[in-house]
Amino acid sequence: MRLEERIASLPQSCGVYLFKDEAGNILYVGKATNLAKRVKSYFPAPAATPKLSALTSQIRDLDYKVTDNEVEALLLECNLIKEYHPRYNVSLRDDKRYPYLKMTREDFPRIFVTRKVKNDGAKYFGPYTNAQAIRQTLKLLRTLFPLRTCQKKIGLKPQKPCLNYHIKRCFAPCAGKMGREDYGRIVEEARLFLKGEQDRLIKRLERRMGEAKEALRFEEAIILRNQIQSLEKIRERQKVISTKPLDQDVLAFALGPDSACSQIFFIRRGKLMGSEHFFLRGIKDKSKEEILTSLVKQYYYNATYIPKEVILQNEIEEKGLIRDYLEQKARRKVRLLIPRKGDKLNLIRLAEKNAGLILLEEYSRSQQMKEEALGELQRILGLRELPFRIEAFDISSISGTLATGSLVTFKGGEPDKDEYRRFRIKRTKGRDDYAMMSEIVERRYRRFLKERKILPDLILVDGGKGQLNTVLRTLKKLKIKLPVAALAKEYEHLFIPGRSLPLILARNSSALYLLKRIRDEAHRFALAYHRKLRKKKLVHD
User: Fold this and answer.
1) Does the chain have fewer CB atoms within 10 Å around its N or its C terminus?
2) What CA–CA distances, in Å, run from 452 to 79, 446, 447, 455?
3) What is the SS3 assignment for 440?
4) What's the CATH architecture for 3-88?
5) What residue ranges in 269-400 does DSSP mark as E strands?
6) Of the candidates 83, 69, 80, 86, which has an alpha carbon nearest to the alpha carbon of residue 15?
7) Taking a C-beta distance cutoff of 8 angstroms, is the pair 377, 511 a contact?
8) Across the 541 residues of the chain, what is the mean pLDDT of every consecutive 10-residue run?
9) CATH architecture classification, 389-540
10) According to the model, what pLDDT value does residue 539 have?
C-alpha cells in the first residue's frame, strides 16, 4: 500500500503513529488524539523548520497503534521512543543502561544492582547515572543494614553461615540467626534509607535502641547507636532547602549546539538528598517546551518514585495530560509548578547553572578526546598534517550476491553523514572482496579527480594486509598518493604501508578508539544497505 493510501486509511482515533524511511527504520514516533488529522497535518503543508522538512522528505511508510485514551498513548509513545531511539525524537541518551537498586519480593529480601526494571512486585530505586554513586550507596547500605546477598533457599533447614555473617555483613537468616519479622524490620529501615527519609529512620532507630537498653541487650544497642551516628553524619551533609517537609523534584536543562543536559534535584522532606543529570539528543529545531516535555515524559516513564511536587524550568506541552499520567502512576495528587519568583525559582536557576557546567565539561572533554585521538593518529602514522578528514570503506555481501560497498566520512573526529556514500558492486563477479574493494575505491577517487574535489587526509579500510595492498595498488593506478591504513577486526591490529608486521595499539589508546568507531560505522552503513537490497529482492521474488 502506498504512503498516500496509508494516510487516507488512518482512523480518527487516539493512538501513536510511527514514520519510517525507505529501509523501514523508524524516523519519528508521535501520539495524537486523532490519528487521521494529526498525520495529515504533515502533508502536503510546507515544513516550518529545516528539521521537519528533512523528516517529511524521508518518510516512505508509516505504522500506527490505536489506544483507548490519551494516557495510554502517552505511555506507548514513551515506550517506543525508549525502544527505537528515533532520529527525530528528543530522547534521553543511553537511558537503557542506567542502573537501579532492586529490593526483591521474597520472605527474606535482597538488594542488588540491576539494569532491568520488571513488573515483578519488587521495589526499584533509581535510576542512577553515576556508577560510582550507586556503588557507594550499596556499600553504605550493606554496612548499615546487612541484608543477605546470596540466593539460598531459606526455611527448609538451617544452613552453615557464610563469611558475611562472621564479618557482620549479613544476619544469616539461612542459619536461623534472625527470624522473618526481625528481618522485615531491617528491610523496612533500608527502604526508608533509600527513599531519603533519614529523620524518620533515625527516630525509629532511637526508639529501638532505647528498647534494647531497657532489655539489657547492650550489643544490639551499640549496633543501633553506630547506625544512628552514621545516618546523622549523612544528614549533616544534606542541605536544608525548605522548612516544610516536602518531597519535590526540580527539573531544568541547559542547551548545547547539538545536545542538552538536564539536571534533576531530589528534595525529600525539605532536604536536598541528591541529583542526577541526563543528556538529551535530537534537540535541533526543538523549542524549550518540546525539550522539557520530552524530558518529563521519558524520565518519569522510568522513575520508581514520583514526589508530590515537580518544579519545572518552563511550561510544557500537554501539561494536564502529563499530570494525569503522573497521578495515575503515583496513585495520588501531583503538582506541576513553574515558579516565577522566590526560593523555587532560585532552585531552578541553580539546577540550570549546574546543567550548563556539566554540558560545558562534557563538551570540553569530548573536544579534547577528539584532538588527542587525531594527534596520536598523526604521530603513529607519521603524517605531515592532522588527519582532519578520514574516509573509510567496507564491503558487505553473502557469497558474492547483492554485494554492496560503503563509504563513511569523519571530519574532526565526528561523522559527516552528508558525505556518506553507498555503492552497488557492478564489475566484480563472484566472491572476491579484494576486487570489490578495488572497484569502489577506484570509482570514488576517479570521480574526485574528475570533479577536482579535495582528497581525504587518510583512507581507512576494514581488513588486514590484503585489503591495504589492494587500496594502495588502486591508488597507484589512479596516480594518487594518500595515507592508507587497515584495521583488522579479530585482534584490532593496524596495518600501514612499509611495515611487514602490524601495529598493536594500547587498548586504552584514543587513536584506536577513533579508528574502531570509524571502521564500525562503515560496516554498519554497508550492512544496512545490503539488508535493504536483500529485502527488496525477497519482495520481488
Assistant:
1) C
2) 48, 10, 8, 9
3) helix
4) 3-Layer(aba) Sandwich (3.40)
5) 271-281, 309-312, 335-337, 389-398
6) 69
7) yes
8) 82 92 89 91 71 84 90 89 86 66 88 83 76 75 83 80 84 86 87 78 84 81 80 62 77 86 87 83 87 92 88 93 92 94 90 87 80 92 93 78 85 90 83 89 89 89 92 94 90 90 87 91 82 60 46
9) 2-Layer Sandwich (3.30)
10) 47
What's the grid cell of residue 284?
535541533
DSSP 453-490: PPPPSEEEEESSHHHHHHHHHHHHHTT----EEEE-TT
Block residue for cell numbers 526455611: 155
Give 280's contacts (C-beta < 8 A, 6+ positions apart): 90, 91, 92, 93, 253, 259, 260, 261, 262, 291, 294, 295
Q: Are 266 and 297 in contact (CB under 8 A)?
A: no
Say how far residue 519 (Cα) sits from the centre of its chain.
22
E strands, 170-308, are: 239-240, 248-255, 259-268, 271-281
Separation between Cα atoms, residue 363 and residue 341, nearest integer Å: 31
Distance CA 170, CA 369 (A): 44
Identify the bridge partners of residue 414 per DSSP, sorted by sequence position: 411
The C-alpha cell at 539 is: 519482495
Burial of 385 (0-12, 13-18, 19+ CB in 10 A): exposed
pTM over 0.85: no
Q: What is the pLDDT of residue 478?
A: 92
- Residue carrying the nine cell digits 514526589: 307
Using DSSP's 3-state secondary structure scheme, residue 119 falls into coil
DSSP 8-class letter at 284: T
Q: How many CB atoms sit inside 10 A of residue 217's CB? A: 14
Length of the chain as a residue count = 541
Span(s) in the chain for CATH 3.30.420.340: 389-540
> Which DSSP letter does residue 337 get?
E
Amino acid residing at 193: F
Q: State the Cα–Cα distance between residues 500 and 328, nearest whole angstrom.
A: 67
Start and end residues for every CATH 3.40.1440.10 domain found in the chain: 3-88
Burial of residue 455, with CB atoms counted within 10 A of its CB: 0-12 exposed, 13-18 middle, 19 or more buried = middle
Reported as half-sphere exposure (CB side, CA atoms, 13 A), residue 309 has a value of 17
Cis status, amide bond into 46, omega within 30 of 0: no
Question: For the CA atoms of 45, 49, 52, 58, what is the dihedral angle to 10 degrees?
Answer: 90
Fold of the domain spanning 248-360 = Nucleotidyltransferase; domain 5 (3.30.420)
Determine the Cα–Cα distance for residues 334 and 312; give it in Å rounded to an integer: 13
Mean pLDDT score of the chain, rounded to an integer?
85
Buried b (16+ CB within 10 A) or exposed e, 197-216: bbbebbebbeebbeebeeee
pLDDT in tens, 463-511: 899 999 999 999 999 999 999 999 998 788 999 998 889 999 887 788 9
